[in-house]
Hints:
homodimer
Amino acid sequence: MRSSQFFLPTLRENPTEAQIVSHRLMLRAGLVRQTAAGIYAWLPLGFRVLKNIERIVREEQDATGCQEVLMPTIQSADLWKESGRYEAYGKEMLRITDRHEREMLYGPTNEEVITDIFRNGAKSYRDVPALLYHIQWKFRDEVRPRFGVMRGREFLMKDAYSFDLDFAGAKRAYNKMFVAYLRTFARMGLKAIPMAADTGPIGGDLSHEFIILAETGESAVFCDKSFTERDVLSMNIDYESDLEPIVKAWTTDYAATDEKHDAIRFDAIAPERRVEARGIEVGHIFYFGTKYSEPLKAQVQGPDGQNVTLHMGSYGIGVSRLVGAVIEASHDDKGIIWPESVAPFKAGIVNLKVADAACSKLCEDLYAKLTKAKVEVLYDDRDIRAGEKFAEMDLIGLPWQVVVGPRGAAQGKVEFTNRKTGEKQEISAEEALNRLTAA
Amino acid sequence: MRSSQFFLPTLRENPTEAQIVSHRLMLRAGLVRQTAAGIYAWLPLGFRVLKNIERIVREEQDATGCQEVLMPTIQSADLWKESGRYEAYGKEMLRITDRHEREMLYGPTNEEVITDIFRNGAKSYRDVPALLYHIQWKFRDEVRPRFGVMRGREFLMKDAYSFDLDFAGAKRAYNKMFVAYLRTFARMGLKAIPMAADTGPIGGDLSHEFIILAETGESAVFCDKSFTERDVLSMNIDYESDLEPIVKAWTTDYAATDEKHDAIRFDAIAPERRVEARGIEVGHIFYFGTKYSEPLKAQVQGPDGQNVTLHMGSYGIGVSRLVGAVIEASHDDKGIIWPESVAPFKAGIVNLKVADAACSKLCEDLYAKLTKAKVEVLYDDRDIRAGEKFAEMDLIGLPWQVVVGPRGAAQGKVEFTNRKTGEKQEISAEEALNRLTAA
């Protein structure tokens, strides 16, 4: 993509409404624009990040055998009356009356709809275990939406639902999601720590929040250092095997948010192993048994011919929230530092002198070759000041910068910069190409 | 995917509420379920088709240089008051009041929001031409939703918007979309015919509908046979070149819907060249000049320093509607016949006797090899009657069926069936593998 053609309205000034760094940077770097309180439009640069995060979430859900569906955003109130949550949900639910005066709502979550779909579609024990997910926009009418996409009203969420004959089956589904979540966040360069959680309005017995560490996190967290040392991506996961040992390994050491903090247990950890940090919730998993299947009569016929009320769980990841969370975890004074897995482009080419024929030729050549090799690259081909180009590249945080000036170009050289470490190397254009096209 | 694990709740009986064939088949084949009047959930099989259609739409939009964004579903009423459409839109607009008593709405279209984003982000003539699109759910509160996803209330639409300094620029954008639309529909195996259209509530001067031919189409259409003979996919399109000759070639011969039909012009065509058929609208493009940019003051500074009010166009494709439209255009008595480009799986393997070791071994082997080669395949590994398996495979319409029985398996043979032509061939399993893995 050429900067001269790319719709990237960056801001020079810090927007006054943004109180946290991710919100500030998302507005400044032209990722999003607020269109109403707590509601955002994703501009081309932000959209690319959102899609990358969504792709990672999807790949890891698919790997567990979870099947993707897509439920609508607008739901009938009827099912919520059946489950008993219609009144209970309160003002956070966006209630709507359609032209025929029917009570509708914008789904804040989908337990009722998926349970309805499954009870109508599944007949016997042969139809379970089942794991279904979707990635869809939700709406929660927060009193005071803030922090940009971190606490917006309309937000993109991945929610999965499991259906099993009994607790043992449900726990297997829970474990699959638990492990998939560890992998999902790790692939985005995040250290996510599972912490036992209250089940809140979704209800149920067994629940974990996944909290990532970020200096600017919303709440205090306390944990054993072991969590920061584990590496789930190097493990070979077979989702059909017993995952309990992995889940156990990730739930035995101490880890708690402020609300559930137990100072006595924490203080029992060796001082150098104690981590006190800030955290951001990015995922939440629940086992809630028959809380919805009971009132909604979601049953299948068991092997013995008797009807069995299904055991269920639900498993959420805040997809749009993660864009903010990644920034909270990875930025500096100059701007965002994208991990390669979610970066909107892998590299940026900075043409320092568009009027210089050799300089532009080298840039064009590199751009053409990278594009051909399907490396996503943003080529700043605009005739503006070099300082402006550098500032924008740092702000938007692409992992690699290839800076081409007239002097270097004359020798076929470029400056190759790692956005994260700041390390700069003068290398040949060919070498830059090789590095960027290498896996 | 194994049928034993796939959530595919098919129906044996024709659902009484379904009046048209695509609605009937989408319910019967387990593609969608209605969750409220005119609102559908996409089950795993239907979701795969929806994603394939969305992918083709996206690839063809991207090819034109159009940049993807994502606008929210919920909009503030303020912008619609600015454009003057808030009152005009009538009851089809789903109006919402949030907890702070602010007037909101579920976007039926996005001219206002995109114009607002662009007027705030673009400053000078250097920021145009610009083409932006998104693929997002829309809501139109139809009085009488019907025909399944063909006329639902919540539907997925691709809408693109162009911004230019003048009519000439806007026409270039219009032509890009015109050609991209021809390619998009052709890739789905559809014959789409552009027909001059009324501009309706969107307003403007220049507009074409893209109508596909289907026996069960919603309206009568009349055109020259030439439209059914053209092949846009074999052309090498350069979107930066002048596309006017292509657009001209596709707009010169007679083509009109019922409403705009001119019997005198039609009758002037040689009788054997006259096509009277039924059609379904799947896309609509508009040039509407300054209709929105004027009231919303969307301007950029021109080269001479003077402000220029932008010329705009909008370009829609009914993504979820296309799933129904493809079925209307391609089905038989037994069920759906998916074109390969949008099929949920390329092939189905039918194991005729799960209890037969050689038969199951051959199936498992073929399934493993196809999966490894990334060919999407549905393997019916269930222990149910062969007749039931055949009926379901025909109903869900995968392009190729590989039928494996004990007798053939003993000789390494399978029956290889083309769903569309019905042609059956007895070939070796290896040959079947080769055919399915060949591009």
